[in-house]
Amino acid sequence: MQSRNKTQPPYFIQTFIFMLATLLTFPVYAVKVTLDPANWGLAQGKSCISCHQKSSAGLTHQWQQSAHAQAKVNCFDCHQADAGDADAFEHEGEVIATIVSPKDCGRCHQTETQEATASTHNKALLHLEQKFPKLAQKNDGQGLKQAGCTDCHGTRVTVKADGTIAPDSWPNTGIGRINPDGSIGSCSACHGRHSFSKAQARDPQACAWCHSGSESPDTESYASSKHGMLYQSHRADMNLDSEQWVTGKDYAAAPTCVTCHMSAAPGIKSSHDVGMRSAWELSTPISEKQSLVIFADGDRREVAESEPAPKRGAALAKVDGSMAKVKAVASPKRRRQIMSKVCIECHSKGFTQGFMRNFDNFVKHYNEKYAKPAAAIMQDLYAQGKLTPEKLDEPLEQHYWQLWHDDGIRARHGAAMASPTQAWTEGMHRVAKRFNGDWTTQLKALVGEQEALRLLQKYTGETDAAKDAIEDAIGAETAENTQNTGK
Ligand code: HEC
Ligand code: HEC
Ligand code: HEC
Ligand code: HEC
Ligand code: HEC
Ligand code: HEC
Ligand code: HEC
Ligand code: HEC
């Protein structure tokens, strides 16, 4: 060991000078980047830019305006590939891939990639393949695409023998896309390329191209809520470009989708796991509250409250079917607490609790009054052989679908996002009208008037189901009563 040269300044000053030099040489990024800056800004990227400036000027311009260009992250840093990668091809002397998957982004953005990968978003295609195996396999695996599910849910991207992507599987940036490298998801579902801006992703429009329409009518719900109204009026005060975006601190004019489902509030971190704060499953025929199971490897899945609660340390099947150890379980109550923490930045505790109570009661009302009786009657008819096992081939089944899916989802999402229009006039009123109208008419046509009334009485416990439905149909008064009494 060398003895210290007495003419040198003491250690702490040396350390200070070293730290200062480091700070001056290495840029400090607002976004946490895991890769050492020495490993990007690769020289091969220069030729991509000069050529693509001509061949695709718009795309290159988007990149030039981005935080990536400012930080010297170029085309090749993202599009580089190993010759052995399934979708690698040679392009102007370099080996590249067109798809930049979450695995590629994850070299620099580990945390966001891990959270997105663990989230329910990334299970969007897996869920469909499991729930609709026949449809998924139909027409050489093209069934889901032809049914119109994959633009939002994602495709399995396949690669032809020559390394090019099969055109029937891409372009696609669906949220649960399965990539040639095995990774799942598509970061440019929300972060439009090639600007990859977080300000753009914070805007409610980032979610609109999937979360609108009868599958998930959130854009409509938000737009017709007070929150959406205020966002429109005060967009300039939303500070969308801010490095940090903490509710109540960096902005207060209105919450966006991202405020409630993803970003930070005092005491809660921002997360790319969008489903974390939701207690209910609002898109099934009958709603149930769900626990969130967190596995040892970070992956997640939901377990309905009616199923046995998974225990810490026990083995449980993941969504992809493999077994893994349970690390922690977030109960619906815990998930609700986290969501409520966002609200109390702008509302009182009492207001927030009152809202949540009304919302829960709305879902229970939908469940008990319409969803459970309708589901039980359908079940009874299948058991009696009065309906064929084939789904959606009979008028009664089509009205049942519209009852819980088109009308029922709209009502429940509308109530969750505080939109009276979607919750009531476009939601619960239509549920009531369909239950007592078209659906009952079809039921009578199928089994006869008397049997229909017997079934209705057996499962609703009411002799005249229409009576209460009128209360829902006249609407405003019922809605108000429900709000005031919390029933
Ligand atoms: C080679 C490293 C690297 C790769 C690969 C990379 N990024 Fe980045 N990313 C960065 C750096 C550096 C920044 C800028 C950090 C800053 O300015 O604070 C950044 C910033 C961002 C931002 C914030 C932009 C803003 O508006 O402030 C987003 C969003 C982002 N990246 C998404 C992605 C996505 C999605 C991918 C994959 C398609 C990706 N990045 C791939 C290094 C990388
Ligand atoms: C000499 C000009 C030139 C250079 C250099 C060049 N490209 Fe291209 N690139 C093109 C042209 C032309 C196309 C085809 C555009 C089209 O199909 O419209 C293309 C297509 C692409 C595609 C899309 C392929 C697909 O599957 O659709 C990607 C990704 C791409 N280039 C990335 C890069 C990257 C990364 C680099 C740097 C390593 C690079 N390019 C260098 C001209 C060039
Ligand atoms: C931050 C990472 C990143 C950088 C930097 C980047 N790309 Fe991309 N690029 C992507 C992603 C992500 C996609 C979407 C592919 C997919 O997932 O379907 C893409 C798609 C493309 C495509 C095909 C899709 C289309 O819209 O036509 C071309 C061509 C392309 N990039 C060229 C370039 C060029 C040229 C540059 C540099 C000027 C560049 N990229 C810089 C991430 C990046
Ligand atoms: C490319 C399509 C797409 C985009 C963009 C998208 N989502 Fe989703 N989202 C989905 C799909 C599909 C599901 C259903 C996933 C599943 O559970 O199988 C989903 C599920 C969800 C859920 C429900 C989670 C649960 O617990 O069931 C929430 C909350 C959500 N998304 C919020 C958002 C927000 C907020 C944005 C915008 C920042 C967004 N999503 C952008 C397609 C998308
Ligand atoms: C416009 C985009 C879009 C299209 C197209 C779409 N979905 Fe969805 N889907 C969503 C969103 C967003 C959700 C999330 C709703 C939620 O979790 O509350 C969802 C949720 C679901 C769910 C419940 C969650 C799950 O994954 O288990 C099922 C099942 C489903 N979709 C099936 C389908 C099928 C089948 C098709 C094609 C016939 C389809 N979807 C087409 C956007 C879409
Ligand atoms: C559901 C939409 C959605 C998807 C999908 C998505 N992001 Fe984001 N991302 C956002 C939003 C919204 C923000 C801003 C969050 C905030 O400010 O709290 C963000 C912010 C970021 C940031 C900036 C983080 C910071 O510290 O400021 C990075 C980096 C990033 N995303 C990378 C990714 C990568 C990598 C992927 C794919 C693995 C991805 N994102 C997929 C919506 C999304
Ligand atoms: C003021 C906060 C808030 C805003 C803004 C908001 N949401 Fe929600 N969202 C909620 C609450 C609360 C729930 C119900 C949570 C539960 O189940 O306990 C919910 C439920 C959902 C669900 C259903 C989740 C499930 O489990 O089925 C989706 C999908 C969703 N929101 C997407 C969005 C999108 C997209 C936007 C923007 C267009 C948005 N939300 C705006 C608070 C908000
Ligand atoms: C960033 C601030 C902010 C956050 C976070 C926020 N809100 Fe709001 N909210 C507002 C503002 C502002 C209004 C409009 C108040 C007014 O003028 O009536 C509002 C109005 C409402 C209303 C309409 C009822 C009324 O007339 O006041 C409901 C319901 C509501 N919020 C529920 C919630 C819930 C539930 C959450 C959390 C999931 C939440 N809000 C989160 C700012 C916020």
Radius of gyration, in angstroms, nearest whole number: 27 Å
List cofactors, ions and other ligands.
heme C
Q: What proportion of the residues form beta strands (DSSP E)?
A: 5-15%
CATH T-level topology of the domain at 349-485: Four Helix Bundle (Hemerythrin (Met), subunit A)
Q: Roughly what is the average pLDDT, rounded to an integer?
A: 91
Helical content stands at: 40-55%
Characterize the overall form: globular
CATH class of the domain at 349-485: Mainly Alpha
Poorly predicted parts:
1-6, 474-487
Number of DSSP strand runs: 7
Distance between the termini: 78 Å
Provide tags for this entry:
487 residues, binds heme C, five-stranded antiparallel beta sheet, disordered C terminus, 23 helices, single chain, Four Helix Bundle (Hemerythrin (Met), subunit A), alpha+beta, two-stranded antiparallel sheet
Q: How would you characterize this protein structure?
A:
By secondary structure, the protein is of the alpha+beta class. Among the domains are: 198-261, no CATH class; 280-343, no CATH class; 349-485, Four Helix Bundle (Hemerythrin (Met), subunit A), CATH 1.20.120. The protein has 23 helices and seven strands. The protein has helices spanning 11-25, 45-55, 57-64, 67-70, 75-79, 102-106, 110-118, 124-131, 133-141, 143-146, 150-153, 198-202, 205-208, 218-223, 226-233, 257-261, 332-343, 349-383, 395-416, 420-447, 449-460, 465-474, 476-485; strands at 89-91, 94-96, 280-281, 288-295, 300-304, 315-317, 323-330. The strands form two sheets. Strands 3, 4, 5, 6 and 7 form a five-stranded antiparallel β-sheet that branches. Strands 1-2 form a two-stranded antiparallel ribbon. Strand 3 (280-281) and strand 4 (288-295) form a beta hairpin.
